[in-house]
Amino acid sequence: MRILCVSDEVDPIIYSPRVKEHFPDIDLVISAGDLPMEYLGFLASMFNKPVLFVFGNHNLKYLGLFRPSIPIPFSAQPVPPHKFGATYISDRVLKVKGLLIAGLGGSYRYNNGLNQYSDFQMWLKVLRLVPRLLYNRIRYGRFLDILVTHAPPYGINDRPDPCHRGFKSFLWFLKTFKPRYHLHGHIHLYNGLEKRESRYHQTTVINVFKYYLLEPSL
């Protein structure tokens, strides 16, 4: 299993007609947010594999197409969600390619913009996933394989400023439901020495900024 993970910044290595040469045998694409939907559509057409995504706190032009409660800007109205060939997984738990995957989009609330949440609001979103996670435990013998979020957990790969603060509810989620991987974006990395991976209990937390190739051992 080879998963191409992307987030936050369009990379010319990815946005290239030679992407399949750079990343052969990709089985799944996962986006952790803040990328143009056209970019995800490109990946869906190039790989012809499932593309799963959450929205972050930027590049929200098409948020209303996938979240009916959000007003849709006039410029976005003519575009049907299926045009992009990608599956919105925020607030959902899915089984894809044999993997149990859950998504939670958005960032910590810092200016009351779209797709920003307080700790309490994110707790509510987390708790709404619990029934399906319990079902997974009964049906498949495990709660979850991969958690996909835009923001990181509190104190892990995050930053002290309000915009880039992680969520405390994610720490509880990881400790309780023990996914093998937690993939997030939101935290930009500017050199190869910055840390991408951390370990929290039984979960490997990975910042997939720009792109990251994951070959899960599940």
What report would you give on this structure?
It is a single chain. With 218 residues, the protein is α/β, with parallel strands linked by helices. It has a single domain (3-214), classed as Purple Acid Phosphatase, chain A, domain 2, CATH 3.60.21.10. 23% of the residues lie in helices and 23% in strands. The protein has six helices and 13 strands. The protein has helices at 19-22, 37-47, 63-66, 119-128, 130-140, 168-177; strands at residues 3-7, 28-31, 51-53, 87-88, 92-96, 99-104, 107-108, 116-117, 146-149, 181-184, 197-200, 203-207, 210-214. The strands form three sheets. A six-stranded mixed sheet has the order 5-6-9-10-12-11. The longest helix is centred in the N-terminal third of the chain and has 11 residues, at 37-47. The model is unreliable at 74-78 (pLDDT under 50). One of its GO terms (molecular function) is hydrolase activity. Residues 1-189 form the Calcineurin-like phosphoesterase domain. InterPro entries: Calcineurin-like_PHP, Metallo-depent_PP-like, UPF0046_metallophosphoest. This is Ser/Thr protein phosphatase family protein.
